[in-house]
What we know:
Order of helices and strands: EEHEEEHEEEHHHH
Distance between the termini: 34 Å
Strand content: 15-25%
Radius of gyration: 28 Å
Helix content: 25-40%
Number of domains: 2
Number of helices: 6
Oligomer: single chain
Mean pLDDT: 79
Strand order of the largest sheet: 1-3-8-5-7-6
Number of strands: 8
Shape: extended
Low-confidence stretches: 195-203, 221-230
Amino acid sequence: MVRGRLIKINNRNVTSADYSDDRARRLIDREFNLSWAGKMRPDNRIVAGRWWPDAPSGTDQFSVENGIAETLGIRLGDKLTYDIAGSVVTATVTSLRKVDWDTFNVNFFVIAPPGLLDNQPVSYITSFYLPPGNVELLNALVRQFSNFLLIDVAQVMAQVQKMMDQVARAVQFVFLFTLLPGWPCCMRRSPAPRTSGFTGRRSCAPSARAAASWSAPIWRSLQSWAPWQG
Length: 230
């Protein structure tokens, strides 16, 4: 993985001020994670252009993920220029890819053919499965290689699930709180004629409106509270 900042699209200098979209601004203001590959990953699919199976090493080509291409206004045939630690690298966009991010495999927005990013400062990234109960192996790995950065995806997903469970409980509480004020009215059985029954149903309306008015501020407070617990 090579980190570089996008500074030009074709011959036009690029800054965050060129974009109104917040995501586009953030992408321009930060460094991209670039990589290289001779063979396309199975969770990638070409949607425009062609991959480089037979291209010579070091060919000036980029393959760009189609979502980020749409966000930044990048089209097939555009020339992208990256500043990589003071070194300028320019290449033509020869393909756009659809990436299945749900696989949690290592993927990149911008990929170059082998050789183009040679001699650039590089970091290596990979993913692996660690069976439960082997946490000590990770601790030993970090102790031996202090420059390693480990991200436990299972732990991250568990935290996300915990937050979603808290939100679900908050929704159930608000739903119950909304129903309780109108429950006696709805359960009341009146022997009166049909016309008075209509009046009885109308009398439930204030209770329902009151329940809605009570639950609205509680729901807003729970929305701001629940996701940050734990």
